[in-house]
Design goal:
With 274 residues, the protein is an alpha/beta fold. Helix 6 crosses helix 8. It is 47% helix and 20% strand.
C-alpha cells in the first residue's frame, strides 16, 4: 500500500466533525442541490447521488425489515432514505455528537422513529445486542483502517450478511505532500485502491460480489462542487465567514485537482460474509 499509513485517530475524527466542520451541515444543504440536482440531493455527505445510493442498497439484495447497520451515519440522510425506499430497520452509529443532533431531528421529521435507531459510540467497542443482516458506509470508511473495520463488520454480521460501501479510492501515484493532505489532514489512515479493498475483504472472511467504478460521476461531482461554491460565494460568507469560504473552496479545489489528475477515484464495493 502506498505511503506511510497512520493508525485510526478517533479523537481527530471527532474534532473534525464536531469542532472544525460543524458549519458543513448548513453549507451542504446550500451547495449540493446544485451539484447533484434537487431530486438527487438527500442530505448525503458522500460523493454519490441519490440514484447511486439506492442502487447500492438494491444490490445488497436484503428484504424489507432487514436489520442493517449504517456505519458513520452522520446526520442520517442515507438511513432515512434507505429506510423509506427499502423498508429496512436501520441502526446508525457515529462517533461525533454534532451530526447526531440533526440526525434525531431528521428521523422525527420523516416519521421514521420506528425504523431507525441512532447511537453515539465507537463501532469497535459499542455493544450491539444483535447480529445484522447488512451493514453499509457512504463516504465514512476513509476514516478507518480497512483491515480492522472489515474484521469488526464480519463479527457484527450474520453468516450470509452483506457489507457495502462507497468510498474514494487511489487510482494513481500520490506524492508525499499530497498523501499527507489526503490522510493526516482528513483523519484518514490510508487511501486504498479498489484492489486493496477487495483483498482485505477476502482476508476478513468476505466474498466480494460487486466492484463498480463510480469515478466518472465522481469527477462530475468534484468539479461542480468547486463551481457551486464560487457561484454561491456571498451566500456562504453570509452564513459562515470569509475564512470558512476560503478554506472550504481550497479543500474542494484540491480534491477536484487530484480527481481530474486521475489520482483519486470512487468505487462501490459489495461483499457477503462467508
Amino acid at each position: 500500500m502506498q505511503g506511510n499509513t497512520s493508525k485510526e485517530d478517533f479523537k481527530s475524527i471527532q474534532n473534525l466533525y464536531d469542532c472544525e466542520m460543524p458549519d458543513n451541515n448548513i453549507i451542504h444543504d446550500l451547495i449540493y442541490p446544485f451539484v447533484y440536482g434537487e431530486e438527487e440531493y438527500i442530505g448525503q455527505f458522500s460523493d454519490n447521488s441519490a440514484c447511486e445510493i439506492l442502487f447500492m442498497g438494491q444490490k445488497m439484495q436484503l428484504p424489507m425489515r432487514s436489520r442493517v447497520l449504517d456505519i458513520g451515519c452522520g446526520t442520517a440522510p442515507v438511513a432515512c432514505f434507505l429506510a423509506e425506499q427499502l423498508g429496512w430497520q436501520i441502526t446508525g452509529i457515529d462517533i461525533s455528537r454534532v451530526p447526531l443532533e440533526k440526525a434525531h431531528s431528521r428521523i422525527n421529521e420523516c416519521n421514521l422513529t420506528s425504523q431507525i435507531r441512532i447511537v453515539h459510540g465507537n463501532i469497535y467497542t459499542y455493544l450491539f445486542n444483535e447480529k445484522f443482516d447488512g451493514a453499509y458506509g457512504t463516504g465514512a470508511f476513509c476514516h478507518f483502517d480497512a483491515a480492522n473495520l472489515f474484521a469488526r463488520c464480519r463479527d457484527l454480521l450474520r453468516n450470509g450478511g452483506v457489507l457495502a460501501f462507497m468510498e474514494r479510492i487511489r487510482i494513481g501515484d500520490i506524492e508525499p505532500d499530497d498523501w499527507q493532505k489526503l490522510t493526516t489532514e482528513w483523519a484518514c489512515p490510508n487511501v486504498y485502491s479498489a484492489d486493496e479493498y477487495t483483498t482485505l475483504l477476502r482476508e476478513a472472511g468476505f466474498a466480494v460480489r460487486v466492484v463498480k467504478n463510480l469515478t466518472p460521476t465522481f469527477r462530475q461531482w468534484q468539479k461542480k462542487s468547486v463551481s457551486a461554491r464560487e457561484n454561491l460565494k456571498e451566500q456562504i460568507i453570509n452564513l459562515t465567514s470569509k475564512q470558512y469560504y476560503e478554506t472550504s473552496l481550497r479543500f474542494a479545489a484540491y480534491e477536484n485537482d487530484m480527481t481530474q489528475a486521475d489520482k483519486l477515484g470512487y468505487a462501490m464495493i459489495i461483499a457477503e460474509a462467508a
